[in-house]
Amino acid sequence: MLPVLTESSVHMTLTDEIKALNDAHVINTYGERTVALSRGEGMLLWDAEGKEYLDFFAGIAVCNLGHCHPAVTQAICDQAKKLVHVSNLYYIEAQTLLAAALCKHSFAEKWFFCNGGAEANEAAIKLARRYWEKQGTPKPGIVTAQQSFHGRTIATVTATGQPKYHDGFQPLVPGFSYVPYNDLAALEAAITPDVGAVLLEPIQGEGGVRVPDDCLDLLVEAVRGSVRDLEGALIQLVTTAALLKRSIDLELTRMALHKLAPVPPRKPHLEPEKIIDVVAGFFGTNRAALASRSRRRDVLVPRQLAMYLCRRYTDHPLSRIARAFDRDHPAVSNAVKVVERKILERAPLRYQVEELSARLDRL
Predict the structure, then answer these.
(1) Domains in the chain, please, with CATH?
(2) CB 279 within 8 A of CB 306
(3) Integer Cα distance of 37 and 42 in angstroms
(4) ∠ CA 27-32-36 to the nearest 5 degrees?
């Protein structure tokens, strides 16, 4: 039977009783605490004595709809009445439906569900090393930032660039190196041939809520290989700038990136017809429709994207790409310019380009 906690005397509050019981039975990994929370609603929390707090932590960014949101509470209760846990040894209906919904409303094609951030970062570390191993060119090195925080497992605590988290856990996982946050020169110098991944927080939290001086500082290395190519870097740059509510000069940024790292086509000999088929399949149409003269939006947008990706992916001249669409080369040039402009303004278009790029990369 569990003990019942009550305020036993004027000298010992309910919080004191909770603390005493906790100290006796729970391993202390978080140091001294002074508040015992008992309930929450929306952005508000109450401690064991009924004192009200405004919560700016949200369970370390877990309760993003607030505490005890009615829809979340109901969904938990409904699921608990049906099935609590069976493991991934079986298909799980709720998990499958969630993945499908996330795919429908985002740029992602598939999802990997984790228990928390440390597990997600562990998966990213393993994926990076596995990728380069499968390519036949192992690159075990991973660069992270000083004052970063990536988790408390042995690999993610190694990735965390704070010595205080390393103390007592040596030897750490080999292959990690650290650079000062927001120092582009140090980052460039650290990316040696054996480095297969860079693990960075767009905004540091545990390190002191540190925002980079410029979004470009975090993404300029991407044009050297961390993302697919220059346009991919620009897509990430625009998205990050929007999240940080930064204004950027896109044309100057494009010019700077071109000078810094001109990027060759990713699949220079891929035939335009194959790219058209991939784009047509994505939009539920066919090659003949994209080569037609229709100006309907559901045909025009896929056609422009297909022209843009043909130009971005291959080294074929515009005339060769134009023939695949039964057009002249100025039509392709104009379509490419339209997409290059719109891709920096419209998030849905950026997501479509990223998804199509992922499919083409698998060819």
Answers:
(1) 1-84 (3.90.1150.10), 214-260 (no CATH), 272-361 (1.10.1750.10)
(2) yes
(3) 14
(4) 85
Report the candidate in 129, 353, 128 with the shortest Cα–Cα distance to residue 228.
Answer: 353
pLDDT tens digit string along 18-38? 999 999 999 998 888 899 999
Are the CB atoms for 272 and 314 separated by under 8 Å? Answer: yes
Question: 249: how many CB neighbours lie within 10 A of its CB?
Answer: 9
Percent of the chain with pLDDT over 70: 81
For residues 121 and 114, is the Cβ–Cβ distance under 8 A?
A: no
| Structure tokens belonging to residue 236 | 């990430």
Task: Please say if the pLDDT value at position 63 is more than 60.
Answer: yes
Alpha-carbon distance of 313 to 269, in angstroms, equals 9
Q: Are 348 and 301 in contact (CB under 8 A)?
A: no
Residue ranges in 51-116 assigned as alpha helix (H): 58-61, 70-82, 93-104
Tally helices (H) and strands (E) across the chain.
17, 6
278 neighbors 324 (Cβ within 8 angstroms): no
Q: Which residues lie across from 176 on neighbouring strands?
A: 142
User: CB of 67 within 8 A of CB of 41?
Assistant: yes
The 10 Å Cβ neighbour count of residue 256 is 14
Residues pairing with 46 in the sheet: 39, 52
Residue % of the chain over a pLDDT of 90: 45
pLDDT at 203: 79
The predicted structure's pLDDT at residue 363: 83
Compute the distance between CA of residue 43 and CA of residue 40 in angstroms, rounded to an integer.
7
- Please, which residues have CB within 8 angstroms of residue 332's CB and are 6 or more apart in sequence? 307, 310, 311, 318, 321, 322, 325
Q: Rounded CA gap, 15 and 34, in Å?
A: 8
Q: What is the DSSP string of 105-153?
A: TSS-S-----SSHHHHHHHHHHHHHHHHHHTT----EEEEEBT----SS
